[in-house]
Design a protein that fits this description.
seven-stranded mixed sheet, 20% helix, alpha+beta
Length: 240
């Protein structure tokens, strides 16, 4: 789990330097402040890319990996535990990984009441081996409404595709247009149990990063409703 707070105390936007990738710990970079930590088998990463101006408001963003449990009934406890922690954090936007489906997102939103969260997007990725819907999806919950959203599974490109993919939501927050990516690449149960990864799996994960960067470039090149700030957060398996 990692929490990001985008904050600017000025009444009007002020110039800020571009953000970069940080590891464990809390670091300052202009006005954004965030902390990221190792979680489960993978590494939760947060990347903040600032446009030409910063916020006049504070936005709290949390990334959360539900790490679905195989035991029947255990996922209900995960929702309860996640909701208890998220209520304390009180984020404006929640980036989810390893969520089972839209219904589970709705259950989490319900558990977070009285705060009013909407499910902006929940992916519907399919298992590349069986074609069945995967039990490991990515999603975005927020207190606001998205004016644009989508999801995309990792491409196989001649090799086994990593588990997961990305989801994206763009919100108008005050005077700013903000884009959020929730990302999962190979950190799910399909990758558990092996201390090392094959060269093919590592290559697939590297390819997924390239696919993510393609989407980031696409969003930043929009001609209309272009987002001014991007935040990318999620879970990547070992080897990246």
């Amino acid at each position: 789990m990692a929490t990001t707070m985008l904050d600017a105390t000025a009444a009007s936007p002020t110039p800020c330097p571009a953000g970069d990738l940080r590891g464990r710990g809390t670091r300052g970079l202009g006005n954004p402040r965030y902390a990221s930590a190792c979680q489960f088998a993978g590494l939760a990463l947060v990347l903040v890319i600032l446009g030409p101006s910063c916020f006049a408001d504070t936005i709290r963003v949390t990334t959360w990996n539900l790490e679905l449990a195989p035991a029947a009934g255990a996922n209900g406890n995960r929702i309860k535990d996640a909701a208890a922690a998220l209520k304390e954090l009180n984020p404006d936007v929640i980036l989810l990984q390893q969520v089972r489906d839209w219904r589970m997102c709705g259950q989490l939103a319900q558990a977070l009441k009285p705060a009013a969260y909407s499910v902006l997007i929940c992916s519907s990725f399919r298992d590349s081996r069986t074609g069945a819907l995967s039990k490991e999806q990515v999603a975005i919950l927020a207190k606001g409404k998205a004016y644009f959203s989508w999801s995309e599974a990792w491409r196989a490109e001649g090799r086994a595709a990593p588990v997961g993919g990305l989801s994206f939501g763009a919100l108008q927050i005050g005077a700013q247009r903000v884009g959020f990516f929730s990302v999962q690449a190979g950190a799910g149960s399909a990758d558990a149990g092996g201390s090392g990864q094959s060269a093919g799996r590592q290559a697939a994960q590297v390819a997924s990063v390239g696919q993510l960067l393609e989407q980031v470039r696409s969003v930043t090149n929009w001609m209309t409703n272009r987002v001014q700030v991007l935040l990318v957060a999620g879970t990547f398996g070992p080897g990246l």
